[in-house]
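Researcher: Watch the backbone:
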Amino acid sequence: MRDALSLQNLRHELGRTWIITVFGLAYVISQITIIMILRPIADAMITLQTTGFSASDYLAVFEVWKASGGLKVYRAHFILDNVHWIWYAGFFTALLCRLFQRHAVSSRYNWVLLLPLATGLLDWFENQLQHVFLSSSDFSTIIDPLPLFSTIASDTKWVLALTYVFLSAVLLVRIIFVRRRKSMN
């Protein structure tokens, strides 16, 4: 009998088509909606999220957004972004579980299945700091070193996400090549 909390059991249970589909649809819908909401401030937001290491970085951008109305857009995106991490962490965990099962990846690499969850938790932490930054109208809650922590969480999140997205793509392409090879024989 399998241990219910083992990563091996997780591989087996979460790699089901319906789980991948449900989380995948929620992720895509949420991602598209967030992109549409953030369109007016997207470039500045991505720059701030990945290079805003100090309170002065945040204050400069937030003041511009406050004057232009961009701050309302930024606040609005949190309606979805507060739970968005659940959708992508669930989707990529389930997808990796399926791909690991399909390719019979050694159980010693099961720790990789935790990367989407780690990414999601970093995203959650980053969002919590952003809520702190937005909690006062004069931005007095944006104090060093909090922006540094937020940006480190964000940058780490992106590195981990790129890692498991790349791994997923490689494993999916491998399936395609195996199918082509079989159909040619």
About this structure: The chain is about 80% helix and 0% strand.
